[in-house]
Design goal:
Length: about 270
Amino acid sequence: MNRRAFSTLGCPGSGLDEVVRLARTGPCDGVELRCAAGQPTYPGMPETEADAVAAHLTAAGLDIVCLASYVQVAADRADVVEDLAGHLRLAARLGAPSVRVFGGGADQPEGRRDRAVRRLSQAAPLAARLGVDVLLETHDEFLTGERVADVIEAVGSPAVGSVWDAVNPWRAGESPDRTAAVLGPWIRHVQLKDVATPTDLRPVLPGHGDVPLAAVVEQLHRLGYQGWISLEWERAWYPEAAGLDQALTAFHQVLDTLAPPPTGPAPSGRPAHL
């Protein structure tokens, strides 16, 4: 069974004690930390603060599974690599294994793919030295697994992988089996969520919307994916959404239902097919 986590995007403004409380409401032993102003982690935070965050979560038995940055590697700006380097150093300080990045570049489509490849290639050596992966999410101008895979393959570094956000490839018309086929070798982190339709992205409790979560999880099982599955509940953008505690309950129910059958020997005295 994959280990479960949630993003602090679902509890905007909450302190670490609330994050720990939410984790303890169900079988979550990891947290994806949103890196933004007003959050427990933010760009440029002092090392002493980062150490305190890491110590607090470690004492609570929680792993930091990803630092969710807002770096856009295809943006038409001169400081992208420097910005990404700062996030990589912060992740290393926190003990996070990866930094999530976006593609971006909506304001300058020409050369967008090449800028993403160049910036990720420039950041990869530092990422490798720090032991922190850079993960390009299926998001914004890079919605599909096909587009993300094209960039990562061109970079060609083991320090660069992907985040599969389950909603975005699907709403762009890419089926879960297609996403898994093209992105499979690079999937290092998975975000699950649910929405009503491909054009209505307001959060819906997992299992109550239209996203083919069963097909996504089936593909992860087929790939032998052993990484984290994280609930990304977008309450920061949709404050009218249900609380994260309710969303986590639904998230666990979905994953419990879709858990693969045990492969080991059946308990003594009971037939193996039960």
